[in-house]
Design a protein that fits this description.
Number of strands: 0
Distance between the termini: 28 Å
Radius of gyration: 22 Å
Shape: elongated
Structural class: mainly alpha
Number of helices: 15
Order of helices and strands: HHHHHHHHHHHHHHH
Helix content: over 70%
Largest sheet: none
């Protein structure tokens, strides 16, 4: 195994085997489970379908309309859904984004005797990206698996109007035709966004060596973008609006694609700048 892949493996191990990872997963899973507990009306409705004393007309309506897609936190627009997506920039970045600042106290000198600093920064970004994206999607996947225990696993119904996914939002036709492909795209999309956003902590560490600032910077970027777009009256372009795919207006989807492209460019520039610093030494 080459030194480059070895350092990536080491950074991934450090990112996943630490107390912050456990804490972040617990926070996301608590919100995921709370969303199910607070959606008892859906569960009780399904229970009435199978109860002998339930109203048959109501039971038939419930059986026809309620599916896992009505319950899943990804498509069920609710306060806990927004809370999950809103705090995730902070939760995902706290895991490992600040490790670069900690490494500067001595570890980085040891590791850079074996590999170049550019390879180290590349490995660090990969670890932060994967760990940040992983933590963001775990609550979504867990929530789907739990809802499968309570609601019918069937196709979403476009007629009942319970779901907010209409013809104006991205992949609406795909959702009603092949919802599990939609689910897969949703998970990948969330993984990429929060993974890239977590890497913004590494980007800011080029100018600020404060560990706290590095860890909260992704959340600051997220919240500032939300505040600015809301103030300007273009809330459709707010990151909290764009990351929730069921309410992401199709004609504004380019804004999120542009934002993610800019984040990729900043990450690449950070790696290149570290290489130039090495060459000047």
């Amino acid at each position: 195994m080459s030194r480059k892949f070895r350092i990536i493996k080491e950074e991934l191990y450090r990112a996943f085997v630490n107390r912050w990872m456990v804490f972040a997963i617990i926070i996301g899973c608590i919100i995921s489970i709370m969303q199910i507990v607070m959606s008892q009306s859906l569960i009780k409705g399904i229970e009435n379908v199978y109860s002998n004393g339930g109203d048959n007309i109501y039971a038939a309506k419930v059986a026809y309309t309620f599916t896992i897609w009505d319950g899943w936190i990804g498509t069920n627009i609710c306060s806990l859904q927004r809370l999950l997506f809103f705090i995730m920039p902070l939760v995902s970045a706290m895991i490992y984004a600040g490790s670069y600042v900690s490494d500067m106290k001595g570890y980085i000198n040891n590791i850079c005797t074996r590999v170049g600093k550019q390879d180290y920064i590349l490995a660090k970004n990969i670890a932060v990206f994967i760990s940040g994206g992983f933590v963001a999607v775990i609550p979504l996947i867990l929530n789907m698996l739990l809802w499968m225990m309570f609601l019918p696993i069937s196709m979403p119904n476009p007629i009942d109007g319970a779901l907010s996914i209409n013809g104006l939002v991205v992949f609406s036709a795909l959702f009603y035709k092949t919802p599990y492909i939609y689910f897969t795209i949703y998970i990948i999309y969330v993984f990429l966004f929060y993974g890239l956003l977590s890497c913004m902590g590494i980007v800011i560490s080029m100018w600020d060596s404060n560990s706290f600032v590095v860890r909260v910077f992704p959340f600051i970027v997220f919240y500032a973008s939300h505040t600015i777009t809301s103030y300007l009256g273009i809330k459709e372009c707010s990151p909290i609006q764009m990351i929730i795919m069921p309410i992401m207006i199709e004609k504004y989807a380019y804004v999120m694609m542009l934002s993610m492209t800019i984040m990729v460019i900043l990450i690449v520039m950070t790696i290149i700048m570290h290489r130039k610093k090495d060459m000047l030494k």
